[in-house]
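Morning F.,

Quick status update on the modeling queue. The single chain you submitted on Monday has been processed. Sequence for confirmation:
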Amino acid sequence: MIKKKYANKPDWTRVLKRKFTTRYFKDTDFEGYVSVTSIEKVRGPLMKSMLGREYCLVDDGYIWLEIMPFKGNYCMTTMYDSNREIVQWYFDITRNKGLTDEGIPFFEDLFLDVVVLPDSNVLLLDENELKDALDKGEITLKEFEMAYTEAKEIMKNIAVDVNRLSDFSNKYLSEFF
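Structure tokens below.
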């Protein structure tokens, strides 16, 4: 089932204390919403195993920078550790994006995800979930194809340059700190 995800993550029970803010930007290279969640206290770290290594994605002092461009069918989350070092970039492929009445950005998650690691490794995740959604009639063939097209575009044109990704993420993070 397609989930609506909110930038302020109201159901995030792992995080006990956080600060959230969001702003609209219109620059030469980007138009959309940027949200920052400063994670102050967690119930416990969130660890994920990728490529034979453990990565901590959430812990005390971490920052999640969520960039939701008007163009494109994705939302990019840059995860920073407590030293403001980038842990990973996570691209959710999206169907619809918008704002709640309270001004909180949201998107409908189309299952497929792209992860970019600082060492330039790129992973395509949850292909089985996308296929299951198509098989169950939760998404159309057009949405299925769009998800793959968007993921391939990210992998081909955005994920190839981690220095550019770092500069882009850090530029918007500096707008908040």
